[in-house]
Write a structure and sequence with these properties.
mainly beta, Porin, 14-stranded antiparallel beta barrel, two-stranded antiparallel ribbon, 4 helices, 47% strand, disordered C terminus
């Protein structure tokens, strides 16, 4: 979402100013730090990953893998599935901002799979006034992204995937003091790899370990008010998981992940190419790497309990938080819910965020030991 506002000409409601400051403006900070545009693309859309502290790169395959790591689809125990998620966003500031996410996949053989998703982000109503507080009009800006992925097995325990993304975002500019509503489009891609292998422990036979890596949102710059444009929220994610299958009734699955922005913080890279910026971003600002730890417990593969911790340093957003969640499986239906509790910056608007997800899976399970999805 991008917005060009001239505050000396127009007056906005407090809610609108909060939205612009916290969501929309993809400009540098007062310290001349370069920030990406369309940063809302990085918000966790589903309840399962959200309840694990926003971990999803190395978790077991589910219908929402499209956002995290599409390569996981190859290792799904089902032929396909569809999931729908809903998140009221920044509800401490307003009640009309939300994210909906519809995703699904289909494995048409044991070595290939396709996936697709639609992500819709609504910023609610934004009211425009003149400098004399005379009402002009109301706009309802939004952003949506359409993803299509292709996954393929690269080895017995290794898979890879590529995802293409079309992004459409509202752009609000001023022309003769009047707001002009426009739309802008961008193309981006994700590259992902996933490794999963069964392992045996004396206390947990037929367990498994997994590793995942994803580089996401590699694409053309977002043009806002200058010719250079701003980078998409390019990032790289690493993750590792081990699932202890104690017996037919219980399993415990801890996961650890690291998320790092590929957009270099130094504002001097604004005019760099996307590839050049991503290369510099890998090694720069390592203190801004998010560290995530989550744990999932399953009872009879019917009731699932989840918790996680997401840590970001003060040099980054200082948005460290605890997450909790639960899931219920009933026949071919999966239900999941999550809750976020901020522990770092207590003034952040993401505190008390909840998410809801429901999924329908189809196709018989190929391995009773690893029968879990959402």
């Amino acid at each position: 979402m991008h917005v060009e506002f001239i505050f000396c000409i127009m007056k906005l409601r407090i809610k609108n100013i909060i939205l612009i400051l916290f969501i929309i403006l993809p400009t540098q900070t007062y310290a001349q730090e370069l920030m990406p545009a369309l940063n809302t693309l990085t918000i966790a859309p589903d309840a399962r990953s959200a309840s694990l502290g926003d971990a999803g790169v190395a978790t077991s395959a589910d219908a929402n893998a499209q956002h995290w790591n599409a390569a996981k689809y190859i290792f799904s125990q089902h032929d396909g599935g569809v999931a729908l998620s809903y998140t009221p966003w920044l509800k401490a500031a307003t009640s009309d901002i939300y994210i909906t996410y519809l995703s699904g996949f289909y494995k048409y053989n044991g070595n290939e799979a396709i996936g697709a998703s639609i992500r819709f982000f609504s910023l609610g109503n934004i009211e425009f006034y003149t400098d004399n507080y005379e009402f002009l009009q109301t706009a309802r800006p939004n952003e949506f992204a359409l993803d299509i992925s292709y996954s393929r097995r690269l080895g017995k325990n290794l898979s890879g995937a590529i995802t293409f993304r079309y992004i459409n975002s509202t752009k609000i500019a001023l022309q003769n003091i009047n707001p002009v509503i426009d739309h802008t489009s961008n193309i981006a891609a994700d590259i992902a790899f996933f490794y999963q292998k069964p392992v045996d422990f004396s206390f947990a036979p037929k367990s498994e370990m997994a590793f995942g890596v994803t580089v996401s949102n590699l694409g053309n710059k977002v043009n806002i008010s200058d010719s250079a444009g701003y980078f998409l929220p390019m990032n790289i994610k690493f993750g590792a998981r081990i699932t202890f299958n104690f017996n037919d009734i219980n399993y415990l699955s801890p996961v650890i992940e690291f998320h790092k922005s590929l957009v270099p913080g130094n504002y001097k890279y604004l005019n760099s190419s996307v590839i050049s910026a991503a290369v510099h971003g890998i090694a720069s600002d390592l203190s801004k790497t998010a560290c995530i730890f989550g744990v999932e417990y399953s009872y009879k593969k019917l009731i699932l309990l989840r918790t996680g911790y997401h840590h970001e340093s003060k040099t980054a957003s200082n948005n460290s938080y605890l997450t909790f969640g639960a899931g219920i499986k009933y026949k071919n239906l999966d239900f999941a819910a999550s809750y976020l509790f901020v522990t770092g910056n207590r003034n952040t608007l993401i505190d008390n965020t909840y998410r809801l997800s429901v999924a329908v899976i189809f196709g018989s399970s190929r391995n009773k030991w690893y029968d879990y999805d959402l």
